[in-house]
Amino acid sequence: MTVVTFHYQGRTADGEVFYDSRKGEPFELTLGTHMVMPKLEEGLAGLAAGDRCSIPVGMAYGERDEGAVQTRILKETIEDGEHLEEGMEVMWTSPRNPHKPIPAKIVRADDRSFDIDFNHPLAGEEIVYDVEVLSVS
Questions:
Q1: pLDDT per residue over 2-21, tens digit each?
Q2: Which domains does the chain have, with CATH numbers?
Q3: How many CA atoms lie within 13 A of 119 on its CB side?
Q4: Using CA atoms, how far apart are residues 107 and 30, in angstroms rounded to an integer?
Q5: Rounded CA separation 56/43 (Å)
Q6: H-helix or E-strand spanning residue 55
Q7: In what residue span(s) does the PPIase FKBP-type domain sit (predicted)?
Q8: Alpha-carbon torsion 40, 41, 46, 52, what sign?
């Protein structure tokens, strides 16, 4: 089994950085375990210690789905709904699955209602990982 230890910076194709492993520990991956996106794993295969490269992985979080945005939910129907403000990220539960919260973002709010977006924040974005391989064993 091949283990690759690397630092990476995740960014959108237009350059917006959403993650940088240099702020913490490097990532260690055993190739073939499918623990990362397939295109990232494919890009790491065959690299050596010291190699640096950019690995495009496409729309790894899928297309943006406007159907995943729920609109005009009355604040009074939600516990603590009066505290919801535009831009807040929340963990949302549903009556069908109250024990598994789903991340979502409040995309519009006024004094009576709000809209909530259940798309992954990177949905619809072309993703690129800039990697630096530290070791291969």
A1: 999 999 999 999 999 999 99
A2: 3-62+123-136 (3.10.50.40), 66-117 (2.40.10.330)
A3: 20
A4: 38
A5: 9
A6: strand 52-58
A7: 1-94
A8: positive
* Size of the chain, expressed as the number of residues it contains: 137
Helices (H), 4-104: 38-44
Output the six-digit token pair for 29. Answer: 């991956």
The token duo for 89 is 């990220």
The pTM (predicted TM-score) of the whole model is: 0.80
Q: Are 48 and 137 in contact (CB under 8 A)?
A: no
Whether 82 and 75 have beta carbons less than 8 Å apart is answered as yes
DSSP 3-state assignment of 46? coil
- pLDDT of amino acid 58: 96
- Most distant CA pair in the chain, distance: 58
| Spatial distance between the Cα atoms of 107 and 52, rounded to a whole number of angstroms | 37
Residue ranges of the alpha helices (H) in the chain?
38-44
Q: Residue 59, SS3?
A: coil
Predicted local confidence at residue 26, as pLDDT? 98
> Does position 94 have pLDDT exceeding 90, yes or no?
no
Residue 43 and residue 3 in contact, taking contact as beta carbons nearer than 8 Å: no
